[in-house]
Design a protein that fits this description.
By secondary structure, the protein is of the alpha/beta class. 24% of the residues lie in helices and 16% in strands. The strands form 4 sheets. Strands 1, 2, 3, 5, 6, 7, 8 and 17 form an 8-stranded mixed beta sheet that branches. Strands 9, 10, 12, 13 and 16 form a 5-stranded antiparallel beta sheet that branches. Helix 1 runs parallel beside helix 7, helix 1 packs parallel to helix 11 (525-545) and helix 5 (131-146) crosses helix 11 (525-545).
Length: 548
Amino acid sequence: MQVIPASEVHDVIVIGSGAAGGMAAWNLTRQGVNVLLLDAGTPFRRASFWTHVKPWEWRARTEAGRKPPQFRLDDREQPIDTPKDKPFDLYRVWGRGGKTNVWGRVSLRYGDVDFAGPAKDGWEIPWPIRYKDIAPYYDKVDQFIGVNGGPEDLDVLPGSKYHLPPPAMRCGEQVLRKAGESIGIEFVHGRRAVLTKPHNGHNACHYCGACGRGCDVAAFFNSSDYLLEPAFKTGKLKIIDNAVAARVLTGDNGLATGVQYFDRYTKAERQVKGRIVIVAASCIDSTRILLNSKSARHPNGLGNSNDVIGRYLIEQIRFHMSGFVPDLIGTKALNDDGISGEHMYMPRYNHRDGRKRDYLRGFGMQLWNTGAQANAGFAKQVDGFGLDFKKRVKARYPALVSLHPYGEVLPRKENRVVVDPKHLDQYGLPVARIEFTTGENERKMAAEMYDMAESLLRAAKAEILPFTRGEVDTPGLAIHEHGTIRMGDDAKRSALNGFCQMHEVKNVFCVDGAAFPTSTEKNPTLTILALAWRATDYLAQEMKAGRV
């Protein structure tokens, strides 16, 4: 195999172009740092998105052999392993901007209920930061990318004075909000990184509701348009496309010297040199890279003498429950597309309602697919036949409400990512094996989540669609993996310090969700952006002072 040696030594090498890698590249380049970014794919061109392709046009295009952009990485190209009885549905995007091309855009701040939660309940380690440390960076991110939301300010969901105007709640959401008030459940405006008015040179959303196909006008935050394109304009950023990172290379002193990568298609091996390496390939792939970065100084993987890296994988449990609210059955169907997803959110409340629980941590709830949306998949669960069936479906189309509770999964040592030397990918690298299961704490939490959802629908007098109590999604479907390279004050129990810097290898940082000690019940991307901004501010200062 031909190895192309490195010559230039870059200030910083960033692995990954998603929220974490994009933020790292943008923040460093604007401070004068030369950055080389390794992207496992190529740019997704907005002009090629099928955002506004109508159903009949979609059918004609596919029959003609055309395909929309393929965002999700095919597991056949880059496999993962799981135990046969413990599946994990991993969503990966190899290409400019990563998952931010198609993410859910839910942008929720964490509070000290989250950061200090483990210190209070005694389960595993707390975060090494508190809200006061990250609040200025939440403010910066809100102002920079544009996050819409309401004025609510809660201990579990801190507010922001920089929110853009929120979209109006849909009729079905208003019905649920009123029902929630009747049983003591509070709802707030949703918080989404979607522009409800022009912001920082980006277009406002025009409410087509097709965000999951990629936004062809860049009206929601994605790393490519919002971070990497501005970074290019500094003249300090270089990107290598189709560069599949394999290992962080180290010298005799154990510090990082660069990165080994493979061309995605030719499979040629290459190496690049750098003074600093930032790992931001998303939780599972970042973990795999570090575990595969073995050397005489790091026989258990880079910076992993304490056997923490790969362990404590955390996600969230989630299920779905739907119904039809009678106040809206038979009413005129309105355009409920909105900004896609929910316009309303239910924050966690179980820590402050005075009831003692037999489980730790908590849950919140999202409400996407409420109202007259782009499809009527619910029709398969509606009784009837022929014309009567069609009438029943049409009458219920505006009345659908959908509940999607998310619950925190506790970190456990046995939930982990390992690399399997017996199963190699097309580049000759050990693949990631994910070993993950939920436990009794999650089972008890899910029982209350079901109680809450059913009580809410009954308070709304809804016609509840069939559900199986106790069922939760296959792990991974929430697409919120965290914890495998966690930060902490105790170097014996964590891999990173509070600035996402490795305890053992001072010139390596990890700024994606793998750094999180807990998963919380909330979506992580806003916190990933804030932490990456904070970490790279720290890194820039350390570089100027000559300490790293």
